[in-house]
Every structure is written in C-alpha cells, then in structure tokens.
Design a protein that fits this description.
The protein is of the alpha+beta class and 685 residues long. It contains 27 helices and 20 strands.
C-alpha cells in the first residue's frame, strides 16, 4: 500500500506516523493516530505514567501521558502528548485511521507493520525503521487471543542470540489499509519468523479504550469488517503490457500517453455500444470496489464526472485517469512531466512563443480544465482553486483594460499574451515570482503624465503587487515606454517642422521684400537703360566686321553692309527689352566687368566662336548678295536675319535666356533656395 492517500481512502502504515516510545530502561515502537495521540504496546511503557515519544520527521521528542493502558492479553496503551508530534503541514495531511474486524478465519496475506527493531540498530548510524510484510493466520493463537503473523522473506539473527524483533513491540499492524492490531511479542521458538499482535477486535470491545480514543481523537473509531478472502482482478492491456495495479497502469500511461488516449478515449462509442478500449477500461476500473483498500468514491467521480463527459477532451480524460491511478506519482501532460516550474515556464515563455512545448501547454491552460486536473496530484495540490482565481483575475483585468483606452498593439496583447502572466503571478511557486521580479527590473516605465492610457491603467489596476498590478508594471510598462519614445520622436519631428516652417516664412518675407524692390519703376527703368547700353555695345562691336571683310576691296559695299548690321542688334534689343524690364533690378549685365563676359581659356573661346562666325558669315553673304543681286535682296536678307535674331533673343530657354537673367547673383541665389512647393514668381510677375 502507498503512504499518504487521498482524503476518503483508508490509510496504510506510512512512515510519517511511525513513532519511537521510550521510558527509562525500555524502548519500543508506536503509531500516530492523531497529531497528539499514539498507539503502542502496554509492556513498552510498563507501569510508568509518562513516556518520551518522537515521530519520524516530526517536531522532536516530547513527553506524553498514558491515557489508557490495557491488561492481560490486551497488551496495548494510548499516549497523549501535550503538543503536536508532527509539523503543521504533516498534521494537515493526516487522515482518520480506519479499524478492521476480521469476518472469517481464512489466511490473510499482504499485512504490514513498521517499527524500530533491534536488528535495525547500529552504533554508527543509530536506529532506523524496518518495514516488514507478513501473512496473518487467524486460526493460530486462538487460545492466547492473539493474531499470529508469519514474517515474509526476513529472518535476522543477532550475534548475542537475543530476539532481533525487540523494539518492534507497539508497531501498528495493517491489512489492506486498515488497522488490524498492535505488534506485542516475538515467539522465540520460530526462528525469528513469527510475530504476535493484539487483535483490533480486543481493543474495540474494550469500553475504556473506546472512551479514551473518542475523548482524545474527537471521534469514535471508524470500524469496518474485513474478509480475508481475496479476488483476482483481470489485467488490462496497454502498449503491449498487462496491468493489474493502478500504479502499473499509471507508469505506462506516462510513457505511452498517445496510445492510452487512442485506445481509451479518442473513440468511446455510445453508452449502449461502447468501443472495446473504453469497455475494457471501464470494466477494469469497476473491479476496484473494495471500500477498505480502494478509492471507490473517487473512482465513481472519475467515471461519472470526467471520463464520460462529452465536453472533456481526450487528453484531459487521460490526465484525470492518471490522477486517480497514482496521485502521489509524477504529474504528466501529453507524455511530458509537469511541475510548478514547467507551468511557470509555460505561463511566462509559452505566451511569447508560437511553437514548442511551452507554447502548447500555455494554449492548453488557456483552454481550461488543465489546472483543476493537475491539482489531483500530491506535488501540485497547491493548484487547487487556482483556476477559479485565474478566471476571476482575468475578468477583472478585462474590465480594467477596457476602461483604460489602450492603443491597438497593447489592446491586442491584453486579450492574448497578458493572460499568462496573470496565472504565473497566481502560481504557488517561488520561481514564477522570481521571474516576474526579474521582468519588472528590465522595464523602465514612463514618467507619470507622459502616456495617458498607462496612467489610467495604473490608477485602475489597484494594488501594484496584485496579479493585475504586476501585469501593468511589466508588460504594459514596456508598451508605454515604447509609446513614450514614439511621442518624443514625434515631438522632435514637430519641432523640426515648426523650425522649417519658420525658415520658410522668413524666406517668403525676404522674397516679398526683394520682389518689391526689384520691380519698382525706377528699377525697371534702370534695367531698360542697362539692356540698351549692353546690346548697344554689342551692336557697335559688330559694325567693324563689314570693314574687316569688304573694306579692303569694296569700301562702298562695306559701308552699305555696316548700315544694315545695327538692324540685327535692334532686333535682339526689341526681343530682350521687355524681359529686362520685367526682371527689373535683377537684370545686371557686366558692363563694367569684362572678365565675366570675355572668353576665359580655350574652352571659353570655342564656346564664343558661333556668335562672331554668325556675324562674319552674315557680312560675307550680304556682300555677295549686294554685289551680284543688288540692294533690295540684300535688305530682304537682313530682314530675315533680323527675324531670326529676334526669335532667338526672345527664347525663354537656352543661352539667350540664361544670358539675359543670369547676371544678378542675389536674384539667382534667392530663386535657387526657395523651398519645394513655394510658388515661384515669373520674372516681372
């Protein structure tokens, strides 16, 4: 039998109840019935009124009063301590002891007892517990009114020849989880392979014992009849192995989770026509119907509430089955061991992942039902009530988050990943709390007043150390810090935009002032004078071309052609004068800066050759025409050239345009730095 069993299941001889009883000159064993009441043999305490009692793993050695003492064949006694002999957490797990009355005289195997025999004493290591298994022969010892026990597979011998079982007196005798008697004697003529025990019936028939027990235990003895006849249970096959005991099946379920789910629960059929796997499991479970050794009530709840419920998933059914089969063993989920640490990892890491074991467990936790099923295991008993607390906290968080006006990213996280941290904060695990504190240390929340929704969240979140408060100060402090950084960047961009706008406004102001000064009547008149002087100078320069070409041979022809050349200059002047007037003060030809208009270098000379070539070519052609055709056609030729020059000088693009309005540095600078999108005024506009 196992040690600590669930509430409602009969208790066995667990080591946390084994006691050592000592008086001057005598020592024996005992069994803890309640945190302060100890059952032992009467001859262990002799005629003393007090004894020293210590329990394995308890609170130390304490004095105890003899509350009741049997006589004759009833070699038993009850000791009462003035304080608990075990720690509070152990006392909270102690279940009521169930007493047994044998109902027939058939041999009974599987009896057990724990005590401190001399055979387990050593000078170096001290005293230790001996756990023996024995068989009860009810037909033996009838005259002495004792139970006779055959010790199984143990026959210690002491060098001194004394009984190795000395010190075992007072140990409780259990059969199938029920208290059957008290070890009292080891007969010497059976090679140390027999023990005798006071019958539980003898104690239960003693009114003084029942009265003392009831007074100190707070309840009358729980008595049940026990038949020594045993039944063979048909084994259950799973993953190629046969299983007769719950723990054996539990071990296979842990290592072959998928096989158990597929065989028992993936397809269960109907109540009238169950599948073979479900029918075999149900029949096997229903054989555990002994109220003395089996958790019958728990088995009924398992079948009726969990295994047959259509809303419970197959995996949860496997977990519920495992919790009933071996509640003291390791908890597992889908073949993976589950601990408080792994649950904390799933809550804190799994919510961040999309794949992996932690993410899978987190999704299953959010689906519901897993926490309550895990609470059935002894190591995870602290999870009891966590699911309800988690649901309540989750509802409270949703109300807080809904009223805070979260931005999109934070609102999405509030409805998904935030739930894991709330559960981690509720887990009774120090590691989860340590991880949350580490996460808090990594986040620098924004200063109050920087992010409005975070300020509202903090105000509505309540206690900062509550699960909701921890969530606000970790996950959503990170969101708020990111928002604060974005707000700071936006403020910087807005300040830059304001500076650019101010610079643009200042430029517009300067441009308006400049344009007003550029377009005054005096400025336009000055531009007309400058274009007249500038083009007049070019006209004067072109006249010698006729004399250079024809003056040596035909002076009269040179004179005639030279009178026609100023017409070309006048044509250019007529085209450029309106433009120069529109530019006003911006038109500044370099009348007094020859370096700016004379060719500079070979490249400049090459670039300026087309204009002289045009003039000399026109003079040459005009002379030929004048000589061969006459003056009218020569005049017509110059009229055509004047039109060409007029059209060329009036262009808004190319060299003519740039030469006309590219002289003024201030105008060119202001027009070149105007911001994109500004309305550029046309010259003179």
């Amino acid at each position: 039998m196992s040690g600590a069993l669930r509430a409602g299941r009969p208790m066995g001889p667990e080591h946390s109840r084994v006691a050592a009883v000592q008086i001057t000159g005598s020592r024996g064993s005992g069994y803890l019935l309640t945190p302060r009441l100890v059952l032992t043999a009467a001859h262990v305490v002799k005629d003393e009124r007090r004894a020293r009692v210590a329990v394995v793993g308890g609170t130390g050695s304490h004095g105890a009063e003899v509350a009741w003492r049997g006589e004759g064949a009833c070699d038993a006694a009850l000791l009462v301590s003035g304080q608990d002999l075990v720690r509070p957490e152990t006392a909270g797990r102690l279940s009521p002891v169930h007493w047994a009355r044998l109902t027939d005289d058939s041999p009974l195997g599987g009896c057990q007892a724990m005590g401190f025999p001399r055979a387990q004493q050593n000078r170096t290591r001290g005293v230790d517990i001996e756990h023996i298994e024995c068989a009860l022969r009810p037909g033996s010892g009838i005259v002495r009114n004792r139970y006779v026990l055959d010790v199984k597979d143990v026959s210690p011998e002491l060098a001194s020849g004394d009984s190795p079982w000395e010190g075992m007196s007072g140990a409780a005798l259990f059969a199938h989880g029920l208290l059957l008697g008290v070890v009292a004697e080891a007969p010497r003529n059976w090679r140390h392979q027999r023990l005798e025990a006071v019958k539980s019936r003898t104690l239960l028939d003693d009114a003084a014992f029942v009265d003392a027990f009831t007074r100190h235990a707070g309840t009358a003895p729980l008595v049940t009849g026990l038949s020594s006849a045993t039944r063979a249970r048909k084994p259950l096959a799973l993953a190629g192995s046969l299983h007769s005991a719950p723990r054996d099946l539990a071990a296979t379920v842990r290592t072959h989770w998928a096989a158990a789910r597929q065989q028992f629960f993936d397809r269960m059929g109907t109540p009238s026509e169950p599948t073979d796997g479900w029918r075999d499991l149900l029949a096997w479970l229903q054989r555990f119907d002994d109220p003395f050794t089996d958790d019958v009530e728990g088995r009924r709840t398992l079948i009726d509430r969990w295994l047959t419920h259509p809303d419970v998933t197959p995996d949860l059914k496997v977990l519920r089955l495992l919790g009933w089969l071996d509640p003291d063993g390791e908890a597992a989920w889908k073949g993976t061991r589950v601990t408080m640490e792994s649950l904390a990892t799933a809550c804190l890491q799994g919510r961040l992942d999309t794949e992996g074991p932690a993410a899978g467990i987190y999704r299953d936790l959010c689906a519901g039902g897993l926490l309550d099923a895990l609470a059935a295991f002894t190591d995870l008993r602290g999870l009891g009530g966590t699911q309800e607390a988690w649901d309540d906290t989750w509802q409270a968080w949703q109300e807080v988050a809904g009223a805070a006006g979260l931005p999109d990213a934070a609102r999405e996280w509030a409805g998904d990943g935030a739930r894991g941290l709330l559960l981690a904060a509720l887990l009774p695990d120090p590691l989860a709390g340590e991880r949350i504190r580490t996460a808090l240390g990594r986040v620098m929340p924004p200063a109050p007043g920087r992010v409005g929704w975070y300020d509202r969240l903090c105000a509505q979140g309540g206690d900062p150390d509550s699960p909701v408060g921890l969530l606000v100060r970790s996950d959503f402090a990170a969101f708020a810090a990111a928002d604060a950084q974005q707000l700071a960047q936006q403020a910087a961009r807005e300040a830059e935009a304001r500076a650019v706008a101010a610079a643009h406004a200042e430029y517009e102001r300067q441009w308006i002032v400049y344009e007003a000064a550029r377009c005054t009547p005096a400025a336009r008149l000055g531009a007309a004078a400058r274009v007249t002087l500038w083009l007049g100078a070019w006209g004067v320069v072109t006249v010698p071309a006729a004399w250079l070409v024809w003056g040596w041979t035909w002076p009269s022809m040179a004179a005639t052609v030279s009178w026609h050349l100023p017409g070309l200059t006048l044509a250019a002047y007529a085209a450029r004068l309106p433009k120069a007037v529109r530019l006003g003060a911006a038109y500044q030809p370099p009348l007094r800066s020859p370096r700016r208009w004379l060719p500079a270098g070979l490249a400049g000379i090459r670039g300026g050759l087309p204009k002289p070539a045009f003039v000399f070519g026109a003079v040459l052609v005009a002379g030929v025409l004048l000589h061969d055709v006459g003056l009218p056609l020569t005049t017509l030729f110059f009229v055509c050239l004047s039109i060409v020059v007029f059209r060329y000088a009036g262009r808004d693009e190319g060299e003519a345009s740039s030469a006309l309005r590219g002289w003024d540095d201030e105008h060119r600078a202001l027009a070149g730095v105007r911001p994109a999108g500004s309305r550029r005024r046309r010259p003179g506009g």
